[in-house]
């Protein structure tokens, strides 16, 4: 049986990471967010900070390379002058493919829905929300001052959009790139987990662990 891989793409402040973490717990599968960064960093020789900045600071390929130009690559790509931003994408792509081959999991961001588009066990999810709710979540959960949160809401989504579209030639957030889109302003985090879980159960026959429900 093919590994079940759920990719979560998300707007900033939508709660997509929380949806992914709860879903992985209920399914009893691995959860990859920062753990993916660690693996890709170890394999590539690139500093973890490079992967942290990849989506959020990619307002353009040039600016991203400029922003992380001080980090040193020790991998093979450094010997053939591959731009740092491309090294990041290649390294995380290889890591994502290896993870999907090895085990069932939930993967957050990193263009995983595109990288694994031919994986037979793939379920692609996009999590979004109303701007006012995403703003409030950013303030409450991340401790970001309101004025800064408003700026980051726009900048981070722009970075994710540009990064995704640069490497995939697809439009970020467009429904045809995903199997399911969930609005957390309508469903809430727990509701979103149930919606995605129901789809996963229907598609793969894998059952969620009801004992891990959060009240």
Describe the protein's topology:
Layout lengths: L4 E6 L5 H12 L2 E3 L1 H11 L3 H6 L7 H7 L16 H19 L2 E4 L3 H4 L6 E7 L2 H12 L3 H23 L11 E4 H21 L11
Parallel strand pairs: 1-3, 1-4, 2-3, 4-5
Helix pairs in contact: 1-9, 2-5, 7-8
Mind explaining what this structure looks like?
- This protein is 53% helix and 11% strand.
- The chain has 215 residues and is of the alpha/beta class.
- It has a single domain (5-204), classed as P-loop containing nucleotide triphosphate hydrolases (Rossmann fold, 3-Layer(aba) Sandwich).
- The chain has a 5-stranded parallel beta sheet, with helices on both faces.
- Helix 1 (16-27) packs parallel to helix 9 and helix 7 (131-142) crosses helix 8 (146-168).
- The chain is globular.
- Mean pLDDT is 83; it is low at 64-74 and 211-215.
Features:
215 residues; alpha/beta; five-stranded parallel β-sheet; 53% helix; 11% strand
Return Rg in Å: 17 Å
Sequence of secondary-structure elements: EHEHHHHEHEHHEH
CATH H-level name... which superfamily? P-loop containing nucleotide triphosphate hydrolases
Strand content: 5-15%
Overall structural domain count: 1
Given the C-alpha coordinates, what overall shape results? Answer: globular
Spatial gap, N to C terminus:
33 Å
The CATH class is identified as Alpha Beta
What spatial order of strands do you see in the largest sheet? 2-3-1-4-5
Main β-sheet description: 5 strands, parallel
Looking at the overall shape, the CATH architecture is: 3-Layer(aba) Sandwich
Derived structural class: alpha/beta
Q: Report the mean per-residue pLDDT as an integer.
A: 83
> What is the number of helical segments per DSSP (H or I, 4+ residues)?
9
The CATH topology label is Rossmann fold
DSSP, total strands: 5
Helix fraction, binned, reads: 40-55%
Unreliable sequence segments: 64-74, 211-215
């Amino acid at each position: 049986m093919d590994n079940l891989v759920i990719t979560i793409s998300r707007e900033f402040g939508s709660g997509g990471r929380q949806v992914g973490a709860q879903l992985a717990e209920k399914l009893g599968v691995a959860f990859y967010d920062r753990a993916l960064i660690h693996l890709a960093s170890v394999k590539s020789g690139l500093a973890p900070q490079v992967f942290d900045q990849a989506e959020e600071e990619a307002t353009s390929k040039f600016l991203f390379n400029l922003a992380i130009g001080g980090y040193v690559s020790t991998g093979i790509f450094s010997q053939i002058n591959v731009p740092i931003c491309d090294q990041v994408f290649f390294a995380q792509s290889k890591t994502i493919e290896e993870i999907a081959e090895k085990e069932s999991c939930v993967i957050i961001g990193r263009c995983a829905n595109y990288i694994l588009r031919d994986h037979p066990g793939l379920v692609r999810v996009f999590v979004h929300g109303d701007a006012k709710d995403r703003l409030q979540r950013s303030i409450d959960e991340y401790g970001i001052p309101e004025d800064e949160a408003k700026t980051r809401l726009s900048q981070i989504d722009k970075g994710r959009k540009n990064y995704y579209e640069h490497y995939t030639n697809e439009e970020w957030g467009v429904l045809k790139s995903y199997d399911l889109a969930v609005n957390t302003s309508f469903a809430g985090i727990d509701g979103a987990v149930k919606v995605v879980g129901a789809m996963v159960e229907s598609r793969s026959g894998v059952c969620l662990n009801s004992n891990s429900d959060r009240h």
